[in-house]
Amino acid sequence: MLLPRKGRTQSESFDGERMPYDAFDRLTTTNIRLGNATIRLGFAPGELKLPTADIVSWIEASARAVTTYYGRFPVATLRLLLVPVEAAGVRGGTTWGYRGAAIRLRIGRDTDRPGLKRDWVMVHEMVHLALPDLGNRQAWLSEGLAVYIEPIARVQSGDLSEAEIWAAMMRDMPKGLPQPGDRGLDNTPTWGRRYWGGAMFCLFADVAIRQATANRLGLQHGMRGVLAAGGNHEVDWPVERILTVANKAVGLDVLTRMYREWSNAPVTPDLATLWRDLGLKQDSKDVIAINDDAPLASIRKGITAKIVP
């Protein structure tokens, strides 16, 4: 989840609506090195059952997934604040960039190792670090990219299976379809459109780029291009600049063209046909059959394949 960074003031509360930068900088922190990047890990007051070593391993695994997708960690330095709360599991996160990249996550005191293994929130928030800050109208692109890229990055790093993520996408992607009264992604800030409508945009853009390049390039290459051009979450870019830079990286105008079509009018893509062409058939709620002879099976494989340097 993202919050606007303009006009924010500081708060000493570790669990408020703002990242308490000044308070964080007074904490004792642990540095986690990732190539040329550093994660400064700090804990708000409170107890966690898990030892710090398990927490660090989870953070490192999440950061590896994001690094695998983007080719490098998105920022040079990240403040990462973990706030212990009641219950178990990761209870949500928020990402900021206005005084340097920062993520705050609420983590349940009773969280165990399997709970961290299942967690998707850390990778989701780290993906936000690789996109310039956008206004609220285009929050669907920020959240949609994070929803779409998070599971793919985890497949590429070996943390999830291809079947798992396609089953989840087939189950949840329809939540992003336009409903009556929809006025396009820029003008319909519902939960479904912001998260899953944005993810749907990313999926169809990825497939379109791969079809146009004989599966040599995809959305991943476009987003790597944005990061390579300095477009991380510590800077403000208009959406047009982001899409233009991503287009340049793949040599196509797919993203700009799709944005013109999807941003101010409802677009209802044919998900059923896409799933069929990708070689995906839902046998039950969370189980799918995969057909490698389908017309777009190679594109499906390309989306989750790890890029060879």
Automatic annotation (TrEMBL):
InterPro entries according to UniProt: Peptidase_M4/M1_CTD_sf
Top-level taxon: Bacteria
Protein name as it appears in the record: Peptidase MA-like domain-containing protein
Species assigned in the record: Bradyrhizobium denitrificans
